[in-house]
Write a structure and sequence with these properties.
The complex is a heterodimer of chains A (about 550) and B (about 375).
Chain A (H helix, E strand, L loop, with lengths): L6 E11 L5 E11 L3 E5 L6 H8 L7 E6 L2 E2 L5 H6 L2 E4 L11 H6 L5 E2 L5 E2 L1 H14 L15 H14 L4 E5 L7 H16 L3 E6 L2 H7 L2 E6 L2 E7 L5 H9 L7 H4 L11 E11 L5 E11 L3 E5 L6 H9 L6 E6 L2 E2 L5 H6 L2 E4 L3 H5 L6 H5 L10 E2 L2 E2 L1 H14 L16 H14 L4 E5 L7 H16 L3 E5 L3 H7 L2 E6 L2 E7 L5 H8 L30
Parallel strand pairs in A: 3-10, 3-11, 6-9, 9-10, 15-22, 15-23, 18-21, 21-22
Antiparallel strand pairs in A: 1-2, 1-4, 4-5, 7-8, 11-12, 13-14, 13-16, 16-17, 19-20, 23-24
Helix pairs in contact in A: 14-15, 15-16
Chain B lengths: L2 H41 L3 H10 L4 E5 L3 E5 L1 H26 L7 H18 L4 H30 L3 H21 L33 H18 L1 H11 L1 H6 L4 H28 L10 H11 L7 H21 L4 H16 L3 H17 L1
Antiparallel strand pairs in B: 1-2
Helix pairs in contact in B: 1-2, 1-13, 2-12, 3-7, 3-8, 3-10, 3-11, 3-12, 4-5, 4-6, 4-10, 4-11, 5-6, 5-10, 7-8, 8-10, 11-12, 12-13
The chains are: A alpha/beta (about 550), B mainly alpha (about 375).
Chain lengths: ~550, ~375
């Protein structure tokens, strides 16, 4: 690939100071060449999203200039950005589920025909969409209804939409966050094809692996500033991660966290037996899920989102009653009894949607830290709150999880995602649970915070608690889990020892390409056979 | 952008924000006064005089005469301000409590009517010395208010009945029930109109200010406000109410009894509305007329909004509201401004004060105007 081409997009000393005093971008300069895939990488809060908003006209820079094709360009709103050939594929896809692929792609700029160009030219639209899809190697049926498509396919629709509107520079915000391994590879292949045809791709990500696999060049942001960049092939993972966090990570967190020695202590602390949930409309969203977790063990749950993991988490923490089956801790059944009774026997949970289900953003750290224990001594006695005890609890959680916040009185909504999540997990650990359901514990948090969160999870495991780890991040699952079960369409479709499985195999089961018959994740359940060369069946 | 300039910029923005916070209320009040005056100027021959009446009409006037020395005149008017402020404080609490749990309960009216009825009934029909019956009056009123407030809460948590609809309907029922009893079995046959007999003197709350109806309720009000604040900020029930109001999904996830917090907040609202009921029956009117005007509950809603549902701010908001209302009445009576215009001015001023985002917007518009001018 030729980087000698003139840069198509240049940022000159761009700074963005928000009204609340946050300096989100500080003197950012970068050059992006036509036909390259350029990654912008950094921790959460490093200023990646702000940079993207500046380029898409959602925010205006406080100082500095943006040059497009060598000319200064002022983008007042997204419409101007689109007119200038810049497209954005947002992280949370914005499509109309009831419309077809074609209708979604042309929405807002439909080809027309007839009297006064008032009629929708459906045939031309389908034609245009399928031509574009073929050109970039997208597998898409123009007539398919978007609501029926997988997340990966929807993302391709979103990309097509930007291309259809004439984008020459396509920005993608954390595109692989919601994809399985296979889907991500397919996406990256398409991106490569787009680049080969002269389009420029700007990839916003916090995964180092993606830089190495798909990108030509990268720019690292930390604290709003550019801390490095260059050709992706010239740097090692360790060097890039040093640029991202500003310090060499001792090693990947996985290596430092010791696992439970296999075969030991194989007595179930927590057991789930045939958990089934049938929705009111008759759809079975959870089907006969059985698993056991020993004390001091982490059972990982892999799966593409929306395959029953969230329902399973809700059932286990007591928010939802199963239609059949039950779960227990040492024989004491805690499902179907409400959240408070489940918590009383030692169940705790960190929810997937932190801002909505995990905190009250407009309340203080203190108020958030005590939410699961406020009704017990020492936080309250006979209905009266003990302010000193409340503050003490918040302080101890902040200290244990290294939360960066001014004071326990600060509103939790003002903290970064990582610090917020530390308090959420710290709160659950402070209630001394025997069984923790951790849903996406490090989603959207930076590397530093993720490391603290992983250490806390392992510390809890080492006290003898059982942990169910539900995560879309395969690296995290492989690093922390002792065993992994794969869920697809509400069922367990595979069961592996975490040391002996790789992301590719998991991906095959996650996407439904493979499935083991009558799989379960009991301690005595056989492990699913791995494909060659390691072809052996094991007993735990 | 260098380190120091960035820091200077941040510091400047923070200073601006602090200034905005500090000056927000005075500036907004000033702006509302300006709008009010502009309106007055459009309809009045003597706008200055008329507007001064609006602003100072509620105050007592100090007058010197050689025979009697210094005298305070217009105490009745100022008394009305205090009386209204006390009633509105209780009604403000009655609305603010459910609002803190994000329950849009509009039932303060009905709760107050039934509580007044209960207070009057106990006063009229329970014999005994005042120190026994008077507490009973309060207990009966509060229990009635609590129960009538809990009803829509239970309807919501049990049957998913929208609380806005149920509280409005329950208001109608309460008011008609009140009228039924006052014009029926509680009617004073000796009176020329539909009204209950006068309550016994020993059960009328002791007077604090001559020529007014300002009673010991004025001293009780701060205590009740303190009680509401304690309930919200220092008890587990209050914590549940606040948490459910701020983040219901999170509260559910944390195992908080969300349904209880919902109905309890509404019931507590009724409890506080009951004090307004006792104030009406055993202090202001001393008997209950059939035509007691409904609608006070909605003024309680305004007071709660002005105070942003913060119990400690409610007495001040109630006083401000009552002061403005009495001034408006004085303006209407003594100047050439008609009642309709007075109401419009009053409404405009309240509108401006509750517009939270008004000032930042204005400042933004001003700054961009200046910038454009500079270019």
């Amino acid at each position: 690939m030729s980087i000698s081409l003139p840069p198509v997009l240049v940022l000159q000393s761009v700074s963005k100071l928000y009204a609340n005093g946050t300096l989100a971008n500080d003197n950012v300069s970068m050059e992006i060449a036509a036909g390259e895939i350029h990654a912008v990488i950094g921790e959460n809060g490093a200023g990646k999203s702000t940079l993207m908003k500046l380029l898409y006209g959602l925010e205006q820079p406080s100082s500095g200039r943006i040059l497009l094709h060598g000319r200064v360009c002022v983008l007042r709103d997204p419409r101007q950005a689109i007119a200038a050939g810049i497209g954005l594929v947002p992280q949370h896809l914005q499509l109309v589920p009831s419309l077809t692929v074609t209708q979604n792609v042309v929405l807002g700029s439909e080809p027309t025909r007839g009297l006064g160009q008032q009629l929708l030219h459906s045939r031309a639209a389908v034609q245009a969409v399928s031509t574009a899809a073929q050109r970039f190697g997208f597998q898409l049926d123009p007539y398919a209804v978007v609501g029926d498509l997988s997340v990966g396919a929807r993302q391709r629709v979103e990309i097509l939409k930007t291309l259809y509107r004439g984008a020459r520079i396509v920005m993608l915000d954390e595109p692989s966050a919601v994809l399985s391994e296979q889907e991500a590879s397919a996406l990256f292949a398409s991106l490569r094809r787009m680049a080969e045809q002269g389009l420029t791709v700007l990839l916003i990500t916090h995964k180092i692996r993606e830089i190495r696999t798909v990108c030509d060049r990268f720019t690292v942001l930390r604290g709003g500033r550019v801390t490095g960049g260059g050709n992706a092939q010239d740097f090692s993972d360790a060097a890039i991660s040093a640029m991202i966090v500003g310090r060499e990570l001792s090693a990947t967190s996985s290596a430092t966290l010791t696992r439970r020695p296999p075969g030991q202590n194989a007595v179930a602390l927590v057991g789930a037996h045939g958990l089934t949930v049938k929705r009111a409309d008759g759809r079975v969203v959870l089907n006969g899920v059985s698993f056991e977790i020993a004390a001091g063990e982490i059972l990982g749950v892999a799966g593409v989102e929306g395959n029953g993991q969230d329902v399973l988490a809700h059932v286990l923490c007591g928010l939802r009653a199963p239609s059949q089956g039950h779960a227990d801790i040492e024989g004491v059944v805690f499902t179907s009894r409400g959240v408070r009774r489940a918590r009383a026997v030692g169940v705790a949970a960190t929810p997937e949607d932190r801002l909505h289900d995990g905190v009250a953003p407009a309340m203080s750290i203190i108020d958030n830290a005590m939410a699961v224990q406020y009704h017990q001594a020492p936080l309250s006695r006979r209905g009266w709150l003990d302010l000193a005890a409340m503050r003490g609890l918040a302080r101890s959680i902040m200290a244990r999880c290294q939360v960066a916040a001014a004071a326990p009185e600060a509103l939790i909504g003002t903290l970064s995602g990582g610090n917020m999540q530390k308090i959420v997990l710290g709160r659950e650990i402070a209630s001394a649970p025997r069984f923790l359901i951790a849903s996406q514990p490090t989603r959207g948090v930076d590397i530093g915070a993720a490391q603290v969160l992983h250490e806390q999870l392992c510390a809890l495991r080492d006290t003898g608690a059982a942990i169910l780890l539900i995560s879309a991040d395969l690296d995290e699952l492989l690093a922390l889990s002792d065993r992994i079960m794969v869920m697809s369409q509400g069922e367990i479709v595979a069961h592996f020892p975490a040391q002996q499985v790789d992301p590719g195999v998991l991906g095959g089961y996650m996407t439904g390409a493979l499935r083991a018959a009558a799989a379960a994740a009991l301690l005595a359940s056989p492990f699913t056979a791995l494909p060659a060369p390691a072809h052996h069946e094991e007993q735990a | 952008m260098s380190e120091s300039t960035a820091q200077a910029l941040i510091a400047q923005q923070q200073r601006r924000q602090i200034l905005q916070q500090r000056w927000r209320l005075p500036l907004v009040i000033l702006a509302s006064l300006a709008v009010g005056f502009a309106m007055t100027a459009m309809v009045s021959e003597e706008p200055l005089q008329a507007f001064l009446t609006l602003l100072t009409g509620a105050l007592p006037r100090l007058q010197w005469s050689p025979e009697e020395g210094w005298r305070l005149l217009r105490m009745v008017r100022f008394g009305a301000v205090i009386e209204d402020a006390v009633t509105l404080t209780f009604l403000g609490l009655a609305v603010a409590l459910p609002f803190r749990a994000r329950q849009f309960s509009l039932g303060a009216d009905g709760q107050m009517f039934l509580a007044a009825l209960a207070a009057a009934a106990v006063s009229l029909y329970v014999p005994g010395p005042a120190f026994v019956v008077l507490p009973l009056v309060f207990v009966a009123a509060c229990a009635t208010g609590f129960a009538w407030g809990a009803l829509p809460g239970v309807l919501k948590t049990r049957y998913q009945a929208n609380e806005i609809v149920t509280t409005l309907m329950l208001n109608l029922i309460a008011i008609q029930f009140y009228r039924l009893l006052v014009s029926g079995c509680m009617r004073d046959p000796g009176a020329g109109f539909l009204v209950t007999p006068l309550l016994p003197d020993r059960l009328i709350l002791p007077l604090l200010l001559d020529k007014t109806n300002v009673t010991v309720m004025l001293l009780l009000a701060p205590l009740v406000v303190g009680l509401a604040w304690l309930l919200l900020m220092r008890t587990t029930w209050g914590y549940e109410i606040r948490l459910v109001g701020q983040a219901p999904a999170f509260a559910r996830q944390a195992g908080v009894p969300v349904e209880r917090a919902m109905w309890l907040s509404m019931a507590c609202g009724g409890f506080f509305a009951a004090f307004a009921g006792v104030h009406v029956s055993n202090a202001l009117l001393k008997r209950l007329p059939v035509d007691l005007t409904p609608g006070l509950g909605y003024e309680g809603l305004l007071v709660a909004l002005l105070a942003r549902n913060e119990p400690r701010a409610i007495p001040f908001a109630a006083f401000m509201y009552a002061y403005l209302r009495t001034g408006a009445q004085a303006m209407e009576r003594t100047t050439d401004v008609s009642r309709e215009v007075v109401l419009v001015i009053q409404a405009l001023m309240i509108l401006l004060v509750v517009s939270e985002r008004l000032l930042p917007r204005l400042a933004e518009a001003w700054r961009s105007l200046v910038q454009r001018g500079a270019r």
